[in-house]
Amino acid sequence: MNKVRVAVIGYGHLGKWHCQKVEAHPDVAEFVAIVEKFPAGQEAARAAHPKARVVGDIKEIINDIDAAFVVSPTSTHFELVKYLLENNKHVFCEKPLCSNDNEAEALKKVATDKKVVLQVGHSERFHEAWDKLRTKFQNLPTPYTVRINRVAPFKGRATDVDVVQDLAIHDLDLLLHLFKQKPLEVSAHGFKIRTPKWDHASLHIKMENDCEAFIVVGRNSVKEMRDLEVISKEGMVTVDLFTNKIYEATSSTYDDGTFVKEEIYGKRDHLLLEHKNFYASILGNLPAIIGLRDGLNAVHLVDSVLKAMDTRKSVTVKLG
Hints:
Elements: E1 4-9, H1 13-23, E2 29-35, H2 39-48, E3 53-55, E4 67-70, H3 74-86, E5 90-94, H4 101-111, E6 118-121, H5 128-138, E7 145-151, H6 163-178, E8 183-191, E9 200-207, E10 212-218, E11 225-232, E12 235-240, E13 245-249, E14 261-264, H7 270-284, H8 292-311, E15 315-316
Parallel strand pairs: 1-2, 1-4, 2-3, 4-5, 5-6, 7-10
Antiparallel strand pairs: 7-11, 8-9, 8-15, 9-10, 11-12, 12-13, 13-14
């Protein structure tokens, strides 16, 4: 295989970006089709990507592709990923991989022994900040405390899911990716403000060796904020994901006489990097950079948080 024959499923806000990234890799990807069920979306897709076929159902082009990007609403992920895997297609699925633990277990059974790449779109892992800090975080003395904020004014999209599936999943995945101490128990509460689903959530996660994490997510805030803070006996590190700055305060004074060091890191095109890794895995017969286990663990954490919010009781976490 010299090029991967690709379809993008879903031509909404994020689907449009994925289509652009497919076209940005003409050396390794052949853009076969866009799958979009709504007439208005089909018309927009044809206008923006005249060389790609636009169809209403993945079954129309299943024999013409090697891989698909699933960028449709979360509620459709399970059936689409299952169908693609059953037909031995490589799959990139935007987070979350599916909606709950029951669907996750079913996908695990289907994916077992399949000789295809399954990559999950946890794009927040691609910040340059984590290249600089992950080793440090992995070796922090315990106990430590992690605080993460991800809030924004209402944008009117992704209302088919709650704020935990939409936003908190990013930070739950980062918790697994950046730190060695694994979650053991979650408690959470929230508010339904603009939609019948949770629009704001506050999470408390107990981790191994007395570590803990506090995560606040919201889609009805008065301002936008995305940051991660870690404090231990070695000091504090704060990452501002909006301004692309890292702040660090240790027990020592820096050479210039200050107590806080500030570092600016570069911005990246996360989607472009995800596409690059997906094609490299397919063509090079390599494991996915963010694979099935990562996707299933993130879904389990989300499911545990939602159970905790619905019952107002702590829920034990059982990662795979």
